[in-house]
Design goal:
With 219 residues, this protein is mainly beta. It has 4 helices and 18 strands.
Length: 219
């Protein structure tokens, strides 16, 4: 799969490199977090949120909104799913990592999405990027199998936590291969998910990705 750098002009549709915040200490602390053989996500990590960059990110990047800092670490080479939020997400790479991205505007009326439109971008170790709310994304991919990937995830506070209210189930909104109501795609707070049938998601998830389950190591 072709991989561009986040400094390539093509990335501007999906996000931007964050250059007005010093992430050095956050990257060093992130290096202490575990790297499992699969993928692990923690929405909020006390050791990361205790750093001065927490206040700086809230004030400068999120305009004084309350935020959380967690991580997504592990080993991965496949797309598996795409998600989106109502707010931007900041990704801070402690290792080289690849993001597979798409545009929310390319999602069809039935909330399906063609994976042939996905593009991949390398985030070098030590760099941070803002992934816009209009960008589809999911777990990063590793560049080095030996090292895996370590990426800090910054989001508005409460994102990706368990839902408390009642929401439509996929079968209640099914319309052919798609769904008629976005509410059926909500899997956590501020997280709408479009999965691939080969992505290993839980039964009951919306499998709306059409085409190949893209793999970083395949053409």
């Amino acid at each position: 799969m072709k991989v561009l750098k986040v400094t390539d002009p093509a990335f501007k549709r999906y996000g931007r490199v964050v250059e007005n915040v010093d992430f050095t200490v956050l990257v060093e602390e992130l290096k202490k977090t575990p790297v499992p053989e699969d993928v692990a996500y923690e929405p909020s990590v006390e050791a990361l949120e205790a750093l001065p960059v927490m206040e700086e990110l809230s004030r400068i990047v999120y305009g004084e909104m309350p935020i959380q800092i967690g991580y997504c670490n592990g080993h991965n080479t496949k797309l598996n799913a795409l998600e989106y939020h109502r707010d931007s997400e900041i990704n801070v790479a402690a290792t080289d990592a690849v993001l597979m991205l798409g545009l929310l505007s390319d999602v069809e009326a039935d909330h399906t999405y063609d994976t042939s439109k996905v593009e991949a971008f390398l985030v070098p170790a030590g760099m941070a990027v803002e992934v816009y709310a209009t960008t589809l994304h999911y777990a990063p991919c590793h560049v080095s199998e030996a090292d895996g990937f370590q990426v800090a995830i910054v989001l508005p506070k409460g994102t990706n936590y368990p839902l408390k209210g009642n929401h439509k189930k996929v079968e209640e909104a099914q319309s052919g291969v798609g769904v008629s109501d976005e509410d059926a795609m909500l899997t956590a707070v501020n997280k709408w998910l479009i999965g691939h049938a080969e992505g290993g998601l839980d039964a009951g998830s919306f499998w709306g990705l059409k085409g190949k389950n893209l793999c970083l190591t395949e053409d």
